[in-house]
Amino acid sequence: xxxxxxxxxxxxxxxxxxxxxxxxxxxxxxxxxxxxxxxxxxxxxxxxxxxxxxxxxxxxxxxxxxxxxxxxxxxxxxxxxxxxxxxxxxxxxxxxxxxxxxxxxxxxxxxxxxxxxxxxxxxxxxxxxxxxxxxxxxxxxxxxxxxxxxxxxxxxxxxxxxxxxxxxxxxxxxxxxxxxxxxxxxxxxxxxxxxxxxxxxxxx
Length: 204
Ligand code: SF4
Fold this sequence. Notes:
Endonuclease III, domain 1, single chain, 2 domains, Endonuclease Iii, domain 2, mainly alpha, binds iron/sulfur cluster
């Protein structure tokens, strides 16, 4: 498909912008990233990971202390609560090991399908397409999906994108959404995909 070819050529080496060294760190960073920029998350996790290096330390944190550690990012009260609960479940049910299945990951508070897919594909190299706000918007504008929910868009993308490209496609669409196809003012004039884009073709 021409759109995928163009995305691949435009974003040849893209990765997640979240800093992480293991599945535990990526899980925590992804839970923290809801409605917050990755830059902001990286600033927080820079201090957070040395202090809570594994699910054990996280499970033993107090709500007050963790809130204080992450208070510069959005929804920090709720995220603190979810992270402590996640630490406890990981210790009690998963022996302190991050599960490498979608079902296992989705048992953790704060980890929905998107977070599970991010961890599966980026930490375990298991093909999955995480549909965040950028992937959702850009996929629909390009005409890759008419889905009305992230789950519907994910199902459509899985049908048209070869499995070996699922992880990369997630990153292509995110970076295209961040850099060019922005929510409010998509920069269609300098977009390399405009000739293939439904939104652009329908508005010109
Ligand atoms: S042409 Fe415009 S709407 Fe289409 S993908 Fe490019 S920036 Fe987005």
